[in-house]
Amino acid sequence: MEDLDTLVLRTALDWQTAGLPVVLVTVARTWGSSPRPPGSLMAINGRGETAGSVSGGCIEDDLIVRIRKEGTQAVCASGLPTVLRYGISADEAHRFGLPCGGTVELVLEPVSALSRLDELLLACERRHSTERVLDLQTGQVQLRAGRRDGVPRLDGKQLATYLGPQARLIVIGAGDLSRYLCQMALSLGFEVVVCDPREEYRASWLLDGVTVSHEMPDDLVLQLQPDARTAVVALTHDPKLDDLALIDALQSEAFYVGAIGSRRNSEQRRDRLRTYFDITEPALQGLHGPAGMYIGSKTPAEIALSIMAEIVAVKNGVLLPSATPVVDGKSLYESAGRQASAAVSSCTV
User: Containing domain of residue 67, as a range?
Assistant: First the structure.
């Protein structure tokens, strides 16, 4: 399953190739509260069909009505990129469903060969982070290397946006837990790769949209070269497989590296990696083990939810105080249980 940005770009390119007029809409800037952040994309074709979104729906509805009535020229009268603002006044904010005081500034770009969407999509597929600079006066686009998480820039002449590789999850082990984790990751727009050299596990493991590899975990990790948009999770409970993946993943650019296991097994794993494989303390600090946030999970699906929540939190750079890692959550839970037991005992003496 593609992430939303890639889906919007691919849909826009498909519509253009089919001969339909297409407008690519980008959220360039926002003030106050807004439903969608800068960089969000939407494509609208001449029939009023859309992919993606730039608000809660009301701005989209306004653009669709205008395009259906007057064509794409209604929003790009000169055939060149146009800048539109919504929600400047309180009345407009209410009309377009924006939070009170919210304002959103959009750039509407008629899609053509100048847009270079095919090259941009190819760069994303090759996992290259790209800066896309749109000339507002000519419609010409420049593509160059750039960081994936850059903030869009808009001035009177140019709009610079940043796109890059889809978030990717490498899962070691093809078990029941892996299946639930992969389903969640797919629904969140991750590219998913499952690695398990054990034929008996792979034989009955099939999930649409997931690449399944029979290679040894260390070979696969070295081959894929995890970048800053990649997470690696080891789920086999077999040190011969999990440790192989972790050794290389911890020395890569992966934004998340985790492994399932009890607290005791997790400490033993750290000792092995430190003692026998010379993994440094800073690298070991990046190992999430036991993987996941503490939610009292019991079933494979609940454990998968716990792990996926932690992966998304790390990806987004948001770790709230309430987002307690499994190892800390279990300790707090057990401590509370002991205190409750002691209180009950003292009351019954």
Answer: 4-163
